[in-house]
Amino acid sequence: MQTNPVRIGTRGSPLALAQAHTVRDRLVAATGRPQEDFAITVMSTAGDRVTDRALAEIGGKGLFTQEIEDALLDGRIDLAVHSAKDMPTVLPEGLHLAGYLPRADVRDVFLSARAGGLGGLSAGQVVGTASLRRGALIRRRRPDLAVVNFRGNVQSRLRKLSEGVVDATLLALAGLTRLGMAEIATEILPVDDFPPAVGQGAIAIEARIDDPATAALLAPVLDRDTGVALGAERAFLSVLDGSCRTPIAGHAVVTGERMAFHGLILTPDGAEWHEIRLDGEASAAAGIGAEAGRELRARARPDFFSGS
Predict the structure, then answer these.
(1) What per-residue confidence (pLDDT) applies to 1?
(2) What is the pTM of this model?
């Protein structure tokens, strides 16, 4: 019997393609169907095309998802593969996050040919990052460094680093690992000092709510603990209204039926921050994340989230 292939939508960067291929390979293994039953459809997003400005200036996280979500809604693709940290907390009507693959290492890494670690840079040296969170964390620890906007995919940022555009940069260890490049990390940063972005290290799969066939197809490859952790982290972000203008970190760890949550908000200059740690039953994950967000919002001064 002839069947149409399952169409998997993705961005076209090497990392996005690696993640889409990982999802396809897991579906092949779980279903026993041949690889040709799963077609990868590459799409360009505004976030890929506009790389000379900070995300906050051109629209925020949705820039990496809108074109792919449009294709999902109009039936051109059946599911979409994203980096979970790129996903807005509010999705288009009719779509949902079906779940996540097992989460990889959430830590950030420091890369430089000029210092063995962040602490080894000299005052005034330049660190490039596109992430407000990473920029604020760098400034909190090393206010004597210069932090500049540094957009582009992993390969383009590494090329600019090698050309001396900046003295150092930070990337996600999970992304380097998926590209087979983990060994280039100069220093792996401790998660307590450099907590990750919400969703960092997780591959998210988005689908139409009214598509039970795709839900059944995905069920064997989705990871329960990652879903619980991301439920807490995304609830935390939702309460704080993460708009790409406030540095926000959130990290949940599930152990059996328990969950521990660590949340942090900072001003972009890293001079002021508020931190919280909560734990509880994994079944209450979203509630714990939301409670953490409300507590930090209550602690922060009224204009904390203005992006100043």
Answers:
(1) 36
(2) 0.92
